[in-house]
Amino acid sequence: MTLSEAPLILILLGLGAFAVLGGADFGAGFWQLLSGGSDDGRALRDHAHRAMGPVWEANNVWLIFVLVVCWTAYPTAFASIFSTLAAALFLAAIGLILRGTTYVLRSGAERSRTRRGIDLAFATSSILTPFALGAAVGGIASGRVPVGNAQGDLVTSWLNPTSIAIGVIAVASGAYLAAVYLAGDAVRIGSPGLARAFRARALGAGLVAGAAAFAALPVLRWDARPVWDGLTSGWGLVALAASAVAGVVALALVARSRFEASRVSAALAVACVVAGWAIAQRPELLPGLTVDEAAAGRSTLIAVLVGTAIGALVLVPSLALLFGLFLHGTLDEHGTQPSAVPRPAPTQAAEAAPAPQRRPPLVAPALACLVVGTALTLLADGGWALALGLVLLFAFIVLAFGAIALPAGPASSRS
Amino acid sequence: MTAAAPAVPAFPPVDQAYLFQARQLQALSFIVHIPLVCFAIAFPTLVLFAEWASLRTGDPLYRTLARRWSKVLLVLFAVGAVTGTILSFELGMLWPNFMATFGSVFGLAFALEGFAFFAEAIFIAIYVYSWDRIPPRLHLLAGIPVAAAGVVGSTMVIAVNAWMNHPGGFELRAGHVVDVRPWSALFGNSYLWHEVVHMYLAAYMVAGFAVAGVYAWGRLRGRWGRYERTALLIPLAAAALAAPVQVVVGDWAGRVVAHDQPVKLAAFEGLARTTRGAPIHVLGWYDGEGVEYGIRIPRLLSLLAHHDPNATVTGLDAVPPADRPPVNVTRVSFQTMVGCGTLLALFGLGFLAYWLRRRRLPESRWFYRGLLVTGPLAFAALVGGWVTTEVGRQPWIAYGVMRTSQAVTGAGGIPVGYTVLALVYLGLAVAVVWIVRRLARAPLEAPA
Description:
Chain A is mainly α.
């Protein structure tokens, strides 16, 4: 691996994570669409909504990560892809906006008719977005994105056999991942009915996703020959075969209700497909543009890697904490009673409590900071005097805010 | 200015009939996203302050407040996340040549912003979903990364804007971008600091006045207990303090613009010719020669731009007509920002003076009627300020090195995209108002 290829590895990792984690979120929306209007259907929809609540924001950030690494490390490739595939990506973005909005709207909807309407919009956008993103990938894989400013066709670059095949696989595999996950989650909260329902859906979606993947192979051979050749020889073939095996194993595990293991296996299948695609296209990113040619200069590539390393230092423990809390059930909205901390008393009871007037003396120092800070900021011609002026102005805000908004010292009723 | 001559774009130029619509599409997306950024910067601090106050005093009121605000925070964050996503898509969809030519210079900031955003998404989920489930101090601690990430993330994006206004960190060799130094391009940029400070204060003004306005509305309709008074005081104090300080910081920002982007400053006023002892006109209209129908204040522009009433201020005639920004849009936006900002500073000072004497909130209904208007005024100042700096930068996308017309996409369908997004955002606006009202109406002790 060369330095030029290192950011590409990051992009592929991000794509894989997004396909697995974000894909499952989209899939949850998919099941909301197919759940019908009955009480059972509502239970399914509510479960799908609750289960992904705390994590879907974080999952979507993977997509952003892929974009920003791509435009920093491979600017010409990014610009070519986004200008040619603008229509597909615009649809995906609109879908993301609708999803994000309807997701938060749902918590405000009490009437079930309103809620059903919102679920419908959520589900539609949950299908639109992965399809459009899959179609965009298809456009790249089938060589329909030439290098340049919008040099490809605005429509056929993403509405073509390869794109449609990959779009369908994206939707189906997301639905499968979501159903497996939701079945496992239903077991965890002790709801065997829901677990059975989602197990059946997982099996159905898994079969459809597998069938779609097999059906896509002849399409690739006919429509995206270079990728087909890459996937049927050498390491590409290994990746493809590994993906197929992992997919079959995942299905078998679902059939035996081993949901956790099945998710791992399914994630592996997705990862192998992403890796296989990369191997098949190597060394070209776009037709006539190799990874080496597309890569930014050395200092930028190193900066991206350093930036990512710093980010990972923050991110990895944070993500571990989130998923730890999430899988442990600490973040559930389910009806479990809160532990440990007692609920605060209704506010009316505290209404009368007159706060004892014991505030730290903040006003005089605040005013001093304001006067000196203003003078320095207005008069300084940059440099340390200006910086000091700004620091004093902020000190004024903090001190004065404390003087105004700070509650009086600890009350006697402190628990 | 870094470079004397413009750069050679990565791709050959295209003929885009809808350049103006592309700019409008980008502007629309920004105007929807930027108020949400204000809440991401300022609101977590206010929520954490309320939670900290509940730990400090044991008063359950503050806890209820923090808890209810945290739900609003989550809603605004979610909408901010998706409206921010489309912005990053648009950078590629609308301005591919800009990204292809300069992505390697400033792209790093977005990668770092991505991580900040990641951390924000993770901890906001932990914070909002773990009330009552983890020990109170740990819960407060989980909120701190949310506030920090909001600040760090927006600083990264502002660093890119500062770079666009004052590009550096690369060399041009025969017009080609070489010797890229991404860290110094972003963080060694003298333009970054005033933009960051100016935006932060603006964030506290927008978020503070808007939240206080909600409770002012409640007060006018008779909802006025200890809870409402506290919920009004915290954001009001933050905004009322930020507003007068913003005037001082604005002066600093103006001087930097006068120094580094003199033509933009000339457009703020509509100063046709380089002038010694230049005046400012309040209101009025620029007709290509000077400002008509404005109230003339002699020498004020020289005084503000260079702190010397007799200083020479560069006029629009310093550059050929093709290199001048649209004067009236820039000028009206600038005056909107300054006008609204001044009113808000006066309002803030008025409240602070009252508080200094009485140590409590005013009784007058007029105060609360005024407070209702401050949120929209702060929003107008915010948008006015961003339009001033973005339109004032035209015709350049990267000041002096690349024109916006060279950056634009060659793809068709921009008007269609504009219409679709406008409709989606209209629906979004209705939906956000609906949900925030819904959350505000929920009983005080809503179940977790």
